[in-house]
Structures are given as C-alpha cells and as structure tokens.
Amino acid sequence: xxxxxxxxxxxxxxxxxxxxxxxxxxxxxxxxxxxxxxxxxxxxxxxxxxxxxxxxxxxxxxxxxxxxxxxxxxxxxxxxxxxxxxxxxxxxxxxxxxxxxxxxxxxxxxxxxxxxxxxxxxxxxxxxxxxxxxxxxxxxxxxxxxxxxxxxxxxxxxxxxxxxxxxxxxxxxxxxxxxxxxxxxxxxxxxxxxxxxxxxxxxxxxxxxxxxxxxxxxx
Length: 219
Description:
The chain has 219 residues and is of the alpha+beta class. Helices cover 19% and strands 29% of the residues. It has helices at residues 26-41, 73-94, 96-99, and strands at 19-22, 57-62, 108-127, 134-141, 156-159, 177-180, 186-190, 196-198, 207-216.
C-alpha cells in the first residue's frame, strides 16, 4: 500500500560507478595492435611475462606491465584514446571539483598497462587491483564462438564489493555480479577495488585485450 502524502528522500551514498565507451577509430588500429602484440609475445620467456598472480591465470599470454611505454604507433594511439576517454569520464563524475583543478592535478597517468592474448579455454580468476584510483579494460579483438557448442565465454565478471550477507526481494536490485561481453573497441573503466575475473573463453580465435591502471595528478 502506498501513501502519496509521505515524502521519501533517496540518498545514494558511495555508489559503484563504471564507465563504458567505444573507440570510433578502432578499426584503424586493430590489426596493427594484434600483429604487434603477437610479435612481442613471440619473445616471451614465460606465458605470464609479468610474473604476477601466475596461479590464477591459465592458457593465456600476459605481457609485462609497460605496454603503453612501447614506441609503436598503434599502441600510442590506443593510449591516447584511453587517456582522453578517462579524462572525460572523471570530469563527469567529479563535477565542479574537476573545473578548479590545475592541468597537473588532473593529469591522467597510466602507470601500469599490459596485454592478454587468451587462447581457447583461457581464463583469469577473481582479483582486484591496487595502488591506483581507476582501472580499465580495452577489447582489441573479441574473438569468436566455439563452432561445436556455440559457446563464446570470456566475459568479464564484476562482483559486488559490498557483501550484504542476506538476499530477499527487498534488496534484489543489488545483484551480486555483473558481466560485460567483449566487443571490439569497447573500453570499460571501473574502480580497482571491485573484484573481477575473465570467465573461460571458448572461441578458436585469439582474444586480445589491454588492461591498465590509472593515477590522477601523481606520478
């Protein structure tokens, strides 16, 4: 029963905000990025060249965390897109505060960046990122479906960082997880404390993604 005379004020405190956008010029850099990452990975000594969290990754190649420092035209174009999109997103979420900051204070610094080349059956189990204010994932090549089962897989699954401990119809809106399906040229920007994973990928074509961590106004 509703009481129309009752004034209810809603307060959304500490929301978990994500951003998503698509690079309109992705088609101009996609093949160059894939070719370059394949060339770099051919010299890997280990599948997980970064040496980070090896035990939660399987059937994928991971670069060192410096890919945006590489002197490659396509890589630098991708970096510029990620910086521009991130700056626009943070301007929107920080509102008036952003307008009063100096260019140095709101500079976007990508301290860590790396690529994954995921093979059939590859996955990356649940983890978080640290020492940054935002993290991003950019889908270079989404891959394809397993022709025998129509399985695609390999979604990025984000899990709630707030554990309620109890669910009924009253808090059903607060879903425990959210999945993002890869699309060529899509970028997802998210808070690094949110647990996330890459579910097993079942396509035959390599899936290629770039991930990065951001600090703002500090180097």
